[in-house]
Amino acid sequence: MWHEVKSLTPKSYFLKSYQPRNAEVKHLRILLIGPVGVGKSSFIDSVDSVLQDRITGRAPTDAVTGSSSFTKNVGIAVFDFTKDPEGFYSFMFNDLMGFERPAESGVHVEDIKLALKGHVKEGYKFKPEEPLTEGDFYNPNPTLSDRVHVLVSVVPAESLSIMNIEVVEKLREVRLAASEMGIPQLAIFTRIDEACPEVKGNINKVEKCSSLLGIPPNCMFLVKNYHSEITTSNAINALILFALRAMVSVGEDFLNDLQG
Ligand SMILES: Nc1nc2c(ncn2[C@@H]2O[C@H](COP(=O)(O)OP(=O)(O)OP(=O)(O)O)[C@@H](O)[C@H]2O)c(=O)[nH]1
Ligand SMILES: [Mg+2]
């Protein structure tokens, strides 16, 4: 496996040439969910950095992580990636605020379910007090393009065991809703630099997280985000590209299955 990881370069042919075969969709939509401050926005930045081959910083991240979500003022922020000079890569990320505790103060699970189905328009600001029902930001007739094609749970490798139970339950609820819709799901562990450096430790974490979230171990990826580096490196790029490639592959399978 490590061979395969090392052979991925920022110019990864698969990602560069990828286009959904399903003609109804121009961009594969990947939604990231997870606890506050776990590195969701940093992962999007890291993908951008890998693809641009330099450190970039588009998705707002927070260097002082507290208990409330930094990605707050946006509802669903959409990020696509420049594939200079040919335009954009054919996949995009949706970033959300993190799940907070107490549960009532964060984004509603009902809103995320609506987002999975494509009912939530870009720019909607989630309201902790009430879920979206109708209005300017409600899309009553979503197309396949508006829907989420891959759901990624982002979990902290270093503090998995102290992940709040309410947050775990929210993650599971969203995951079950996505399963009912047939949406493929992966998980990434961020902050592996702060977690146990031994592989065995990480494998135990993968198994623990697998049973917590109900995602099979082979759908889980260890990732180190670019958070303090000033240049990109092959080792960090490889982990990010490996996870990204898996996201795009399962999303493509989902779209093809829908096409029949
Ligand atoms: N050591 C380390 N720090 C990281 C990593 N990924 C992110 N961080 C740091 O964690 C903090 C929070 O990262 P964000 O990307 O803002 O987290 P988020 O999940 O988007 O948070 P919310 O939007 O608040 O839900 C920032 O200070 C990042 O620099 C990582 O892999 N390793
Ligand atoms: Mg964020």
Automatic annotation (TrEMBL):
GO biological processes: immune response
InterPro entries: P-loop_NTPase (IPR027417)
PANTHER family cross-referenced by the UniProt entry: INTERFERON-INDUCED PROTEIN 44 (PTHR14241), INTERFERON-INDUCED PROTEIN 44-RELATED (PTHR14241:SF1)
Source superkingdom: Eukaryota
Taxonomic source organism: Amphiprion percula
This protein's name: G domain-containing protein
